[in-house]
Amino acid sequence: MKLKHLLSMAAIAGLMATSAAMAADVRIAMVPKSLGNAFFEAARDGGNEAAKEIGGVELIFNAPAVVTAEGQIEVINALIAQRVDAIAISSNDPDALVPVAKKAMKRGIKVLSFDSAIAPEGRMLHMHPATAAGAAKAQLEMAVDAIGPEGEIAILSETPQSTNQNEWIEEMKKLLPSDEFSKLKLVDVAYGMGQSDKSYRETIALLRRYPDLKVIIAPSTVAISAAAKAVEDQDMVGKVYVTGLGLPSELAGYVHTGSIKSFAIWNPIDLGYSATYLAYDLIQKEEVQAGDELEAGRMGSFKLDDKLETSLPQPFVYDASNVDKYSKIF
Amino acid sequence: MTMTVSSNNRPSLDAPSTISAGSMLKSREIVLIGLLILVFVGGDLSSPWFLDIYNLLDSTAIFSEIAMMALSTALVIICRDIDISMASVMALSSLMMGLASQSLGLGALPLCLVGLLTGAACGFFNGFLVTRLKMPAIVVTIGTMSLFRGVAAGVLGNEKIAHYPDAFAAIGQSYFMDMVPYSFITFVLLSIVFIIVIHYTTIGRSIFALGNNPEGALFSGIRTDRLRFILFTLNGLMAGLAAVFLTSRLGSTRPDIANGLEMEVITIVVLGGVSLNGGKGTISGVFIAALVIGFLRLAITLNNVPGNILIVFTGTLLVVSVALPIIGQKYLPRLSKKKSE
């Protein structure tokens, strides 16, 4: 009996602590890939900024603890049950989320994907963080910047299903034969599964397997810091450079020690800000079609292409000269 | 897994007249119903969306797959065995369905059969190793957990399969009368069948006899190894069934599909009052435990509680549910003695 009481108290306390009854006119939910990722926390801050600017908007931010489609489905189901007005999703699997996203849209909830796309039938629009070609080119340029035009490179990605990363890798492979990058030799693509420890181990495996490796390109915020850490721990600073996409606050240290020369990222604050604005636009407009221009506050407006997709401007490159300034922001 | 015959665990078919068994189990179900009420009260107080019949029924699709595996896993555990390979069996079943759909273009019904047969075959393999080669169940299923998952991941590589016929997708994505997910109906019907078979037939009595006293059961004419073999195969079959529903619900097969679900299955079984020492437990307890965990998860996600706090809740529930019978056994006899004085 005592235990029963203990249990009941724990359950009630847990539920009470989290019950936040807020009444706003419009409720927009943001579902990132997983929690505890500084990139998406910055996106949430941008979303909150947009919500405050628009006024009368409540931003709900929730995601599963691990990077799985099943976890996101559970979260989205709960959001449908709460009858939110719009859901902006960075998907863990473009196909597995389609059924639940369709269910949401059938019930009048506006669904858009940002950062990592849902398949077209499962969303009303998608916002790329940058054009895939732009992101791929920036990463290869940073590799050349670190080692010159010649040498072995490897890619350390997130998961084999990560929509974004796969697109960038495809674009990089397309760019490699061009004159500018033809002497870079891509030896392997490894996957850190979005986890630090796995990314770290995969990096060490790459270093062992390819003694002539010069650059590791990590197009993932988790993978890039794990790779830089591994390069430092293996005493390979100066021999192997890490580059890719990451957050200034997490990478400033590695830039100063030299394992990373430069890296790029679009501004996640702008990304979350724009996604929230686009969600609000969808709620106001009911329907969107190719060619529509959607308002996004200080970001100007976004034009939808014929696939109902749009994109943030080019990623921004950070190096020793500016990383400290931005690391205070995100 | 010692074979000692304690006076408390006689191979008798009725519940012993001393405290434990009968009254303990009943009190466990009362505790569970209390917990369920608590979840409902807490859910209602914390979210205006919880006590909504559509939302409640909708959420059953999330836990019904896990819950149906808990039914057969409960039987395996009652017989003093364990099976932790179910999630990997699901991955392999899902893979076979995906390959059959992709390369043979099979329809919905044959795809389900492929899934069920793959599951049953995996369970048969487990059962063979445990009962014919006399290997400990924990060792076997730790091994096959990696083996089945490894085969699935090896074949899929870094790819995934997302081509399933519409009729197959309908199994896990459509609702009976626009309200009740078919997986939940399946779970409820299976629970009823399991309750009848386990608590009202000779097969059920054989299972409890085996769990309470394997030697005694053997000497009283029960073909114990055959029974365990059947239960492992049944558990594989149920994992295959769960894979049918999950694959259909997701419409996609990835190497990490169903990853980690075995622990959620065992959480339900243990919370339901099934003793890991075997011989004790009820299907009705497992049924209510599945509802407790399922609706607790709904209440928590409806409050937009971050996913990493969600696992704290289920983890706590598991530890408490294991501690509960131990503390009960330690203190309940003293209490009942005091009362009788």
TrEMBL record, chain A:
GO terms (BP aspect): rhamnose transmembrane transport
UniProt GO molecular function: carbohydrate binding
Location(s), subcellular: Periplasm
Signal sequence, renumbered to the chain: 1-23
Domain Periplasmic binding protein: 28-287
GO terms under cellular component: outer membrane-bounded periplasmic space
Alphabetized UniProt keyword annotations: Signal
Entries under Pfam families matching the protein: Peripla_BP_4
CDD domains: PBP1_ABC_rhamnose
Signal listed as a keyword: yes
Chief location bin: periplasm
Gene3D superfamilies, A to Z: 3.40.50.2300
Family, as annotated: Belongs to the bacterial solute-binding protein 2 family.
Name the UniProt record assigns to this protein: Rhamnose-binding protein
Organism whose genome encodes this protein: Cohaesibacter marisflavi
From TrEMBL, chain B:
Transmembrane segments: 30-50, 56-77, 84-102, 108-130, 137-156, 184-208, 229-251, 283-302, 308-328
Cellular component terms per the entry's GO annotation: plasma membrane
Subcellular location: Cell membrane
InterPro entries assigned: ABC_transp_permease
Function as written in the Swiss-Prot or TrEMBL entry: Part of the ABC transporter complex LsrABCD involved in autoinducer 2 (AI-2) import. Probably responsible for the translocation of the substrate across the membrane.
Subunit structure of this chain's protein: The complex is composed of two ATP-binding proteins (LsrA), two transmembrane proteins (LsrC and LsrD) and a solute-binding protein (LsrB).
Identification of the protein by name: Autoinducer 2 import system permease protein LsrD
Source organism of this protein record: Cohaesibacter marisflavi
